[in-house]
Amino acid sequence: MLAVRDLSTAYGGLIALSQATIDVGEGEIVCVAGANGAGKSTLLKTIAGMERPSAGSVEFRGQRIDRLAPHLVTQRGVAYVPENRRLFPRLSVEDNLRLGSYLFRGKADREAPRDLALQLFPRLGERLKQRAETLSGGEQQMLAIARALMTRPKLLMLDEPSQGIMPKLVDEIFASVSAIRDRGVTVLIVEQRLTECLEIADRAYVLQTGRVTMSGSAAEISGNAEVRKAYLGL
Amino acid sequence: MTTQAVAQSLASGLLMGLIYGLVAAGLALIFGLMDVVNFAHGEFLMTAMYAAFGLYVAFALDPLASAPFVAAAMFVFGAIVYLGVVRYAMSASANAGMVQIFATFGLGIVMRGLAQLLFTPDYRSIPHSWLGGKTVQVAGIFLPAPQLAGALVSLAAFGALWLVINRTDFGRALEATREDAGAVALVGIDRKRIFALGWGLGAALVGLAGAVLAMFFYIYPDVGASFSLIAYVTVALGGFGSVFGAFAAGILVGLVEAATALALPPSLKYVGIYALYLIVVVVRPRGLFGSL
Description:
The complex is a heterodimer of chains A (234) and B (292). With 234 residues, chain A is α/β, with parallel strands linked by helices. Chain A is built from ten helices and ten strands. In chain A, strand 1 (2-11) and strand 2 form a beta hairpin. The longest helix of chain A has 16 residues, at 167-182. Chain B is built from ten helices and two strands. Helices cover 72% and strands 3% of the residues of chain B. In chain B, 50% of the residues are buried.
């Protein structure tokens, strides 16, 4: 579904991502692991069209998307939840959700993803009138994912969904990611918390200083001695 | 001075204030949306006044009737200014803020120069409009009909604007872009499209104000200067970027101007407005309704 080939991205000469090759198949949950500064966020930003790659290509469902403006990438069916969530803080939860379905005019196209989002995250339903900025970190993450689902994506990309969230909610969010995949949405997730991520993922990649250094099934990666030492603290 | 005279003066101040609010609305809208101050705002107003004048001369169309057409034409003009000038100024690789200021300031000079070239610096006016010279008497107070109509147009425009911003998808997209223009792509919105529509809407509002002013004010190439100065004060008073703050501040400016005219000689009639401005800048720099 998503084919990233030899993708490189540099910020003013500083190479953040170097010849990364990653595949995501339809219906999969793929986890990209790596330490801070390994290039995980850059990978997602580049796929989302927020950064221009210096080399390489990104194909989504057989079509190149690496030269598209970010809103066009979203329109093709790739939803991106960035690390800092980028909600519209002074708008209500309701308005944030509605904005997610801005592209759709039909009632069904708007209500189906909304029902799904509120079913996955019932606590958002209790806070519809509140401003997004008044939500807790975990609730904001839920809203960011819900807003992304409102665009009816085929691929959902999550950047560190567990960051700054209390542990109980982290489990809830990872469980919801599984549920989202079960509804037919493919998921590409970038995480530092490898344990939880590998539990729900089918396959995983490890990024180190901008390069893909390891790839395999979730079981292979979590069984790898080096990974266990470096990331899982075992 | 009688209570009658005070009431009379404040009533005209209120009407003028509503029109000031309408003049400032577009400036506040564009600033709030994208942090760009349109230094050609006065020239937008001037263009709209000439447009209303032209429609009067060519088709004997009263400014009140031509106002929707002037607003529509200004909508297109505003979007073109964004797409042709401001868009490039914003993507300047260095000092984008300065580039924006000079780009819109320069545009204003060009527009004024073109107006002088095409229409000469002569003062024009629309001699026989429907409402020209008429007055309406309410409780012993005489209200000039053109100003009254202008004030009602302003109220209607702000009402419509409120509905657009709070009740439509476009309004929601406008608010979202104003909050975080970099994030609207995440929901598939092209921010440049929203920016262009925002410029269109802002220009349409000042277009409406221009048509209204053409009923009772002289039309000349420099006419925008005094109004835009008041508009900048209004926007700063209301809170930068707050459209409805501009509405309230416009009324305040109109009332203060009228009160000053009562107390001081006519040559000092702007003293009150700028004194108010200075007080707000010192005491409450974010403006009356600003949330900066």
